[in-house]
Amino acid sequence: MISKEDIKHLEKIFPFWLDINQNDRAKIILSSRILSLKKNSIFFNSHELDGLLFLKSGKLRFFLSSLDARELPLYYLNNMEVEFFENFNDKTISTILDIAFIVEKNSEILLIPYSVLNLFRNKYSIMEKFLHNLTREKFSKSLLSLQNILLVPLKDRLLDFLYSLNKTEIFLTHEEIAKNLGSSREVISRNLKVLEKENFLKINRKKIIILDRGEVL
């Protein structure tokens, strides 16, 4: 049984919560559960996570994983955000690429099983529309990320990524940066050196120092 606080989360997740009859709301509450995910855990096609996932705390990084072990970054899930897996373990969707995620920080999620949602999407048109919109948003984010990888030069994506961290000193390894950008450590190292020559940053042994943008200009 989830807590009263988590029931309040359900009310926020589903804007139409009060339009669901009391018995059905009770079924959703009773089927929901809290899961703790440890940092650096990776989930590939996990049937355990089919359904609607509400991130109470932590951070998850989603990516596409190919048979040649290449990772293509998609998007992040942050605190109080929702993700919906309609059929997370169905490999018929793609025999080449599988969606997966890595736990960037110790995380706690509220999970509403797909089996329960599937019952009510047939009963409530507003539930069907809600889940459809979540799926559409996910594919839109994924497509935007893939377009970015294909069309934007890596050097520009690398600089944007470093700026997005909002830190003057960055203690990520070149390998960690590469995973975030769907590249390799060698290519990232090469592009960092280019950015250093262009005075965007300085590379020390264990950190990257972002130069003030005024200095660059």
From TrEMBL:
Q: Which PROSITE patterns does its entry note?
A: HTH_CRP_2
Q: Name one Pfam family in it.
A: HTH_Crp_2
Q: Which domain of life is it from?
A: Bacteria
**Keyword annotations of the record:** DNA-binding, Transcription, Transcription regulation
Domain HTH crp-type, first and last residues per copy: 152-214
Q: Biological process GO annotation list?
A: regulation of DNA-templated transcription
- Kindly give the Gene3D superfamilies that the UniProt entry links to this protein: Jelly Rolls, Winged helix-like DNA-binding domain superfamily/Winged helix DNA-binding domain
Q: Name one GO molecular function term.
A: DNA binding
Q: What is this protein called?
A: HTH crp-type domain-containing protein
Q: Which organism is it from?
A: Fusobacterium nucleatum subsp. polymorphum (Fusobacterium polymorphum)
